[in-house]
Amino acid sequence: MAAISASQVKELRDRTGLGMMECKSALTEADGDIDVAIENLRKNSGLKAAKKSGRTAAEGIVVTRVAEDGSYGVMVEINSETDFVARDDNFKAFADRIADAFFAAKSEDVAAVMAGELEEVREQLVQKIGENISVRRSVVVEAAPQGTLVGEYVHGGRIGVLTVLNGGSAEAGKDVSMHVAAINPAVALPGDMPQEHLDAEKAIIMAQPDMAGKPEQIAEKMVQGRLKKYLAENSLTEQPFVKDPNQSVAEFVKAAGGEVVSFTRFEVGEGIEKEEVDFAQEVMEQAGRQ
User: Fold this and answer.
1) Residue 277 has pLDDT above 50, yes or no
2) Alpha-carbon 151 to chain mean position
3) pTM of the full structure
4) Which of the 8 DSSP states describes residue 170?
């Protein structure tokens, strides 16, 4: 029986993504031959799941849960590699189970919630579907002060929104969340706009041709006017309400007896750099290895 070195275990871990003890056991069984160990591992589910884990999962769905009294809500993004799998009933059932778990735990800690049984369920689904599946992120939104409530809306499974209103109704919260899903405002209130965004916009305005040669006072008035327009276009409360453009979102919510506090918006895959796959090249490489 050949002695198994730490470097062999590391190489097998790097090539398979499996745990140290599993790799050491596979190498022991294969008498130290890494290629034989890989071939043996391919016969069990462990390697298949681990090999999938390196693939980019930028498709998937967003799922929300809100307490009956509107006191808090949870939103979770669960990813798959392809949109086809995101529409699969098994995947949707898994996503619902995950959302229920995060809602019950009232937690944003993906590692903690997924530890144990849920991780085993995820790995089993990877085997069944044949794609990498991951729980990317979760957010808990609370309506802390008395009188506030959380509204929710999910569009096509790909865009989810949780909105906090001070007063109003669940229906109004849903309508505002629908607006956020459709329009994607930068902030909820004009005062929420980060100063660096305002500074960057001001620099853009100052560089516009019609600003050249303007006296300082006139230039400053023009800048402030355009910044006000910028804030109106990018702040939720100031935008024309998508279901009735004759009133602003703030006016709509006020008529419903409330005011906008905040919103959180998830869109599937945002911020993930997707792999560009050259399928012709991939086929040629596969053929060359055979």
Assistant:
1) no
2) 19
3) 0.74
4) H
